[in-house]
Specification:
The chain is an all-alpha fold. The chain contains 20 helices and no strands. It has one domain: Up-down Bundle (Growth Hormone, Chain: A), CATH 1.20.1250.20. Helices cover about 75% and strands about 0% of the residues.
Length: about 450
């Protein structure tokens, strides 16, 4: 068992009060819609990019452009996500968790909604930059808020519960795209993607709830009283340098692996469906429905696997400790990638195998919601968590760009995509070997004041 003290009240489900659950719900909804808004573009890119570039839908040029710009715009999002994480983490340590959380949710909702109005690629990139700043800022603030609000002995469970919103956010994005673009506006692919982006305004309701019902954490209030304003350079002071590098290392590997996969999972499902439709001689309407179905199936398998993998963080963290937990995730991710994209499988089997890829590549994020806040004192907690979780996105931004570029150069086929994703397994495999030296163990520590 995890030896940390269990200062858990007896009343309430899992020893958590109604207000604890309200905080967890706010962090959960903010993070879920954060991911929802982040990945909507990945679902609409095959229609959005050709429309903005005035390319014939379904043409070879349209497919190549969709693959390339999916990678390029995702990489741009990662950079702005990182900048937003560092900026708003610092803001949250200065003005409080509640106000900063409200600002980030409102910002990413507005940026995503504005994508519905764009008329060219440049405008789309500008709107994604606006959304990326808010998307990047929300996670670190939400994680710090939840870690500081719940009892010490329930920090792991609360953090994992918050993380489950992420795969469910992608499932919701998949469902929204399917219903809006695949059913309601299936006959108008030139404009259906605009209505999908409008769904990104839903998080505004969460932002209003945060503003009305949450209160500031006692940890932040106590640390802020009379203290000098925090600065990001303090993260590299002798007492915190090892913790910061540990958080950055784990986050870079996880983020690089996830985005290199997730940015192209919907596209892979759609491409496999298109190739199958050609071989089977399906009519255009049947081919379009198959593409939407397989796209949703690929995304759902990956993200439901991530949901199950996130829950595994609880027994792994408590039974093994933080360092072995990360090693287990890295090794499982490498194995899942090698098998899914290296074996000769039918298209349907390969789509099902994405569940295992998600369990490793996506499931690892269940650990960050409690691990990163454990590394830093309260006055630097949002800054540190936001920096580690998001600065890795700058280093990882090359992943989607390289996958998209190489796949586009190879013709944008499913075989080209899978070949690149197969070699991606080297990233978590190498990380598992380095982890014993790079990961700081925090098992048994109370949350630093």
């Amino acid at each position: 068992m995890d030896p940390q003290p269990l200062s858990v009240p007896r009343g309430g489900f899992l020893g958590l009060s109604a207000y604890h659950w309200l905080v967890i719900a706010a962090g959960w909804a903010g993070w879920g819609f954060d991911v929802f808004d982040a990945v909507l573009f990945n679902f609409v890119a095959p229609d959005c990019i050709p429309a903005l570039l005035h390319l014939p839908r379904g043409s070879h040029a349209a497919r190549q452009a969709a693959v390339f710009w999916t990678g390029a715009i995702t990489s741009i999002l990662l950079v702005t996500w990182a900048l937003g994480g560092v900026l708003f983490g610092w803001v949250a340590d200065r003005v409080g968790r509640k106000r900063a959380l409200f600002a980030t949710i409102a910002l990413y909702a507005a940026g995503t909604g504005l994508c519905a109005l764009v008329t060219n690629i440049g405008q789309l990139i500008a709107c994604r930059v606006i959304a990326g700043l808010g998307i990047g800022g929300e996670w670190g603030i939400g994680a710090a808020l939840v870690a500081e609000a719940v009892p010490e002995g329930r920090r792991v469970e609360a953090g994992v519960i918050m993380q489950t919103a992420s795969p469910l956010g992608v499932v919701l994005a998949s469902a929204a795209n399917y219903q809006i673009a695949g059913v309601w506006f299936a006959a108008d692919p030139q404009s259906s993607w605009r209505y999908v982006f409008l769904a990104g305004l839903l998080p505004v309701l969460v932002a209003l709830g945060v503003r009305l019902f949450l209160r500031e954490t006692a940890h932040w209030t106590a640390s802020h009283a009379g203290a000098r304003p925090p600065t990001p350079r303090e993260l590299f002071a002798p007492g915190l340098r090892a913790a910061t590098l540990s958080g950055v290392f784990a986050a870079v590997i996880a983020v690089l692996s996830w985005w290199a996969c997730n940015a192209f999972i919907p596209l892979l499902g759609r491409t496999l469906a298109a190739e199958h439709a050609v071989r089977a001689g399906l009519a255009p309407a049947a081919a379009a429905l198959l593409a939407a179905t397989w796209q949703a199936r690929a995304s759902n398998a990956f993200n439901l696997g991530g949901l199950l993998g996130a829950f595994a963080a609880v027994p792994l963290a408590r039974g093994l400790g933080r360092r072995p937990m990360f090693m287990a995730y890295f090794l499982f991710s490498a194995l899942a990638l090698l098998l899914t994209f290296g074996l000769q499988l039918t298209a349907q089997t390969r789509l099902a195998m994405l569940f295992m890829v998600g369990a490793g590549v996506y499931g690892i994020f269940g650990a960050f919601t409690f691990y990163l806040p454990e590394l830093f004192p309260a006055r630097l907690r949002a800054t540190g968590a936001g920096f580690c979780y998001n600065i890795g996105r700058i280093l990882a931004a090359a992943g989607p760009f390289v996958v998209g570029l190489v796949s586009a150069m190879a013709g944008g086929s499913s075989a080209a995509l899978m070949r690149v994703l197969f070699w991606l397994a080297l990233v978590p495999l190498t990380a598992a070997l380095v982890a014993p030296l790079a990961i700081v163990e925090t098992r048994g520590r109370t949350l630093p004041a």
